[in-house]
Amino acid sequence: MIHLDSLALAAMAAALSAGCSGSDAAPQLTTRSALPTLASLPDENPDPGALEVSMRAETATKQYPGADPTEVWAYAGTVPGPLLEAKVGTELTVHFSNALPEATTIHWHGVRLPAAMDGTMLMQDAIQPGQGFEYSFTLKDAGLFWFHPHVRSDVQVEKGLHGAILVRGKDEPTVDHETVLVLDDVRVNPDGTFPEFLDDASKMMGREGNVLLVNGASGPEIPMQSGALERLRFVNVANGRFFNLRLEGHTLRVIGTDGGLVEQPWDTDTLLIAPGERYDVVLIPIGEPGASITLWNDPYSRGHGTTAAAPEALAAVRLADSVAPTVRSLPSAFPAVEKLPAPPGDVPVVLGEKFDDKGEVVFTINGQAYPNVPVVQTAKGSVRTLAVKNDSDMDHPFHLHGFFFQRQSDTGTLKNKDTIIVKAHESMALTARFDEPGKWVYHCHILEHAEGGMIGELDVQ
Least enclosed by CB within 10 Å: which of 136, 244, 378, 381? Predict the structure, then answer.
């Protein structure tokens, strides 16, 4: 590992301090708009066991606060893109067409599928402008997943290419209301353009925006009902921002994560969600009918001295004018999650950072930047443990394509994950069953880090 020298660290710290506070900080909310409903696509297949849609990536226009209208890149003309809803076992077919000015793909984040459908350049040629591709696979697992490009992802996702997939299983809890919340931010200039070049803070930490978004809106009102059992499904699609959520005066009960429901839910006053992660929570709001409750994004230091200057108001919960007519209770248990065997970590994954001879920051795995990271070979059906060590001075959300993993140190809250925060100088053992052949990638889901070299490859045969 090559560590940053003192002069480079001092310069970077100054840039980070300027880039993560002051004028770039999201303003406190003064006006509220209704929470946008995520778009849907018509199902072209009458078979109840199939969902077949057509979706195009195209340019569109979006209005962000404090800026002129912005040209964005959008799935089916909306940012966020459409919400695809289905049941476990559904055969999903997406007739995708590319009307963008550059090549793209779709990666189905967290979905267990054939490698040829995963949307990476290891298994699929990029879809050129004017061309199309048919994605087709079975939805094996219940949970909230999402989709985005895996070509220049730091640019294409920032411009607006992301959407969500909600897959329902047989053990879903009965609730009064359910809401999918897509968390994002963008950095947009007053003239409506996206900055063409990254500053030093963004190169090091990942791009953080000056506009916070929920379902594409700044400061929306989330409708709830006092006394009702409310279910919130969160996904963080931002390039680099960690959302540290706190609902004023309330505790959230976590009932699920990336890979679906957990056996033993737990309660928390704050919920930290890294880029790529999903969380499934329930709560029973308390308050007078018509009251407004602030959803805060609290400060979180993820390394190199970065901490937001103050809590930021992300959205508001607006309570209905009536109270739920009967008493509700929070779910306390769900069916057991299958525990994987726990072999010792024999796949080293060391996350690092360094400067190259031009003074540019480079992100590494096992001391090398992609594509020079050695490929990990493993047999189909094998259960192996990734010994992930963060040798850098910042947190990295580690994401594995195509498979769920389990952290061996988890007890009582066993859960399947595909993205997990590995804190600065932390180590963890992540075990996965590699039951699908093909070439897969794992990487940091701070998109600037992945594009900057922090990607590795797994070859399952």
Answer: 381
Same domain, 184 and 146: no
**H or E element: which one contains 295?**
strand 292-297
Place of tokens 């990942």: 206
What is the side-by-side order of every strand in the sheet holding 376-378? Answer: 376-378, 455-460, 438-444, 396-400, 419-422
First and final C-alpha spacing in the chain: 31
Residues 182, 162 share a domain = no
What's the pTM value of the predicted model, to 2 decimals?
0.93
| Domain identity same for 180 and 152 | no
Tokens of 37: 């409903």
Residues 382, 419 share a domain: yes
> What would the pLDDT profile of 190-231 be if each residue is shown by its tens digit?
999 999 888 888 889 999 999 999 999 999 999 999 999 999
- Among left, alpha and beta (phi > 0; psi -120 to 50; other), residue 381 is left
- Measured in whole angstroms, the distance separating CA 415 from the mean position of its chain's CA atoms is 17
Cβ neighbours of residue 446 closer than 8 Å, sequence gap 6 or more = 205, 206, 239, 240, 275, 396, 397
Domain of residue 426: give its range. 345-460
Read off the pLDDT of residues 318-373 as tens digits, 9 standing for 90 and up: 999 999 999 999 999 999 999 999 999 999 999 999 998 888 899 999 999 999 99
Taking every pair of Cα atoms in the chain, the longest distance, rounded to a whole number of angstroms, is 67
DSSP H or E stretch at residue 265: strand 260-268
- Same domain? For 116 and 227 the reply is no
